[in-house]
Amino acid sequence: MSSRDQILSRIRSAVAGAPEVEISRSYQTSGQEAGRVELFAERVRDYRAIVHVVPGDELAATVARALSGRGARRVVVPGGLPEGWLAAVPGLERLRDDPPLSAAELDAADGVITGCAAGIAETGTIVLDAGPGQGRRALTLVPDYHLCVVSADQIVGGVPEAVARLDPVRPQTWISGPSATSDIELNRVEGVHGPRTLEVIITR
Fold it and tell me: pLDDT tier at 155 (50, 70, 90 boundaries)?
C-alpha cells in the first residue's frame, strides 16, 4: 500500500459513520448587469492601466492614437486579429508569430496588440485564452507594452460568470493591470513578469 493509500484509508476510517453534511450552493454567481462597462473601466484604471471607452466605429482611430503615443512601429500581431483594427496605422511593421517568434524578438518589439476572451467588471480582470486575435501566452508576457481591445459584450459582472463562459481546457491568462510586484517595504516595481504598460480599449 502506498503512502497515499494509507492516508486516504485513515481518513475514511476517521469519518466512518459521520452524518451527511449539506453544503450550501446558494452563493452569488452573477454580478450587476447595469453599469458593468463603467465599473470594469474604473477597476482597470485602479490598476494603473490606461483605459479608453469608445464607440465601435472609433476603434481603429483609437488604436492608431495609442500606438502613435507610444511610438510603437514594430508590433506583434497574433493570428486572427481583425485587420480593421490596424487600418488607420500607416507604415506599421506587423510581427507575425508564424513561425514562432523567439523571446529575443518579442523583447525587441515595441509592443503587442490583442483581443481577449472575457473581462470581469468586479475585479477589473482581462482573461486571455489563446483564441483568435490573442496568440500564445508569451506574446503578452514578454513585450513591455500590451494594447488590449475588449468589447462591451465580453464584459461580465463577476468571476463565476467568466468561468462559466470560458473553456477549461484552453490555456488561460488572467490579467489584472500591468505586471507589478512590491518588496517587503512596499516599493512597487512594474514590468517584472509581464508588460510594464497595459492599455485597454473598451468598445461599445
Answer: very high
Cell of 54: 469608445
DSSP state of 97: -
Whole-angstrom distance, CA of residue 144 vs CA of residue 39: 26
Strand partners, 155: 119
Q: Among residues 46, 83, 86, 90, which one has the least CA distance to residue 198?
A: 46
Taken in order 146, 150, 154, 156, is the CA torsion positive or negative? positive
Q: What is the pLDDT of residues 3-42, one digit of tens each?
A: 999 999 999 999 999 998 888 877 777 777 789 999 999 9
Nearest to 115 by CA among 69, 151, 91, 143: 151
In the CATH scheme, what is the code of domain 34-203?
Answer: 3.40.50.10420
Amino acid letter for position 9 = S
Fill in the amino acid letter for 25: R
As a whole number of angstroms, the distance between CA 163 and CA 33 comes to: 17
Q: Which residue has cell 486571455?
A: 128
Residue 191 CB contacts under 8 Å (≥ 6 apart), including other chains: 144, 178, 179, 180, 197
- What is the distance between the alpha carbons of residues 119 and 166, in angstroms, rounded to a whole number? 11
- Is the Cβ–Cβ distance between 201 and 150 less than 8 Å? yes
Distance (Å, whole) CA 117 – CA 113:
14
Note whether 73 and 108 are within 8 A (CB): no
